[in-house]
Design brief:
This protein is mostly helical. The chain is about 65% helix and about 5% strand.
Length: about 400
């Protein structure tokens, strides 16, 4: 990493390796190339000056590289600077004491940069661990439990690499490792297929599938199958409600180590979530599934589903599919003209939704729509697909 050197004689542009330039000066016969007139007493002084100049330039560049996080290049340049100072020191006429100090300073800088590089590598690994945890959380909260397990296992692997590399004196790193390991243990436990939460997710999902199958059967005019699916769905929701009796939603725990919902005590850190009624709770990893838009419902949501299913079953069995029908198809303009009052008018749905949204602190919840509109949440779900879809239809950017 040595740059070419230019001849020190005035007006001479000869450039080459240091030794070649010295030979050039000593073999050129004109007066301008005589050491007696040059700014250096002899070739050794010229060599020392060039080594020191290049060493200083390389050391400065190395520090700049380190400051910008380019640790590998920084070490390369600092080692090259050290080599230049050592070459200068090896020349008998050099100031050995001064050059020894320069060498010591560069060695200390290299050690500092190596420490910074090691710390950055550990930090990058820890960031990778957190990234895998976040991806696993996203997968878990949407029900992709196998993908979540893969992400968490990758996080465990990265965490083991950190533990192997981190020196004992890096207390901050070991503290962060312990915190991440606690988080991972809780999340991996939440993926246990035999856990109450996983069983409840499956139970609720099956009930929803039967409800949707009933909707589809009704749209296909298969009334007998619709009633059968709705009855199965209602039985499933009954089981979900019974299971939810084991959880607490209306009050927080008095202990910071006890989950507000399942009331189990945990040694690992708990997390804060918002329920769909905007109530804040501190919960274990498994109970994060109860977060708003999570996989598990609150009892009031299940009760609403049950109420609409009961109305649907009654309407189908009586042959009355009027205003109380909770899962009707979206009306077309022709339908509106022929069956005024038989289907919710889309404009009325949106007008009432906008009114609720403007008064709400954030997105309206299903409970808000049940309480504050004439149609209820399930009508909005059937007409638009969901609350956010309905708000977008109304012109809001959500």
């Amino acid at each position: 990493m040595t740059d070419p050197v230019t001849c020190p004689a005035d007006g001479c542009s000869y450039t080459d390796r240091l030794d070649a330039v010295v030979d050039h000066v000593e073999t050129t016969g004109d007066e301008s190339h005589d050491w007696g007139v040059l700014p250096y007493d002899d070739a050794d002084e010229f060599r020392v000056a060039q080594h020191v100049e290049q060493g200083e330039r390389l050391a400065s560049a190395g520090v700049e590289r380190a400051d910008s996080g380019q640790y590998e290049l920084a070490v390369e340049q600092l080692e090259a600077a050290l080599e230049q100072f050592q070459h200068a020191r090896a020349i008998p006429s050099s100031d050995s004491r001064s050059l020894q100090e320069r060498c010591r300073t560069v060695l200390e800088t290299i050690e500092r940069v190596e420490d910074e590089r090691a710390a950055q590598e550990l930090d990058d690994l820890l960031n990778a661990v957190e990234s895998h945890i976040e991806s696993g959380d996203d997968d878990r909260l949407r029900g992709a439990f196998d993908s979540a397990a893969d992400e968490y296992e990758q996080a465990v692997t990265e965490l083991e690499r950190v533990e192997q590399r981190a020196p004992d004196e890096r207390e901050g790193v070991h503290r962060r490792v312990a915190e991440l390991r606690d988080r991972l243990e809780g999340r991996l436990a939440s993926l246990d297929p035999s856990s109450d939460h996983r069983e409840l997710v499956q139970l609720y999902d099956e009930a929803l599938q039967h409800r949707d199958a009933g909707d589809e059967a009704f749209r296909d005019s298969d009334i007998e199958r619709a009633v059968e699916e709705y009855r199965t769905a209602r039985t499933g929701f009954d089981q979900v409600l019974e299971a939810l009796d084991e959880f607490t939603f209306d009050s927080a725990s008095s202990s910071p180590s006890v989950c507000d919902i399942c009331r189990e005590k945990f040694d690992t850190a708990l997390e804060t979530i918002d329920l769909d009624d905007r109530t804040e709770r501190t919960v274990c990893p498994s109970c994060t599934l109860f977060a708003a838009d999570g996989l598990l419902p609150m009892p009031r949501t299940v009760a609403t589903e049950q109420r609409y299913l009961a109305e649907n079953i009654e309407s189908l069995e009586s042959g009355d599919y009027g205003l109380t029908w909770a899962t009707k198809q979206r009306a077309t303009p022709d339908d509106d003209a022929e069956q005024t009052g038989s289907f919710p008018d889309e404009q009325q749905l949106l007008v009432q939704l906008v009114g609720v949204y403007q008064q709400a602190d954030g997105l309206p919840t299903p409970a808000d729509l049940d309480e504050k509109t004439d149609f209820g949440y399930l009508a909005y779900r059937e007409q638009f697909g969901g609350i956010e879809d309905a708000l977008r239809e109304a012109g809001f950017d959500v």
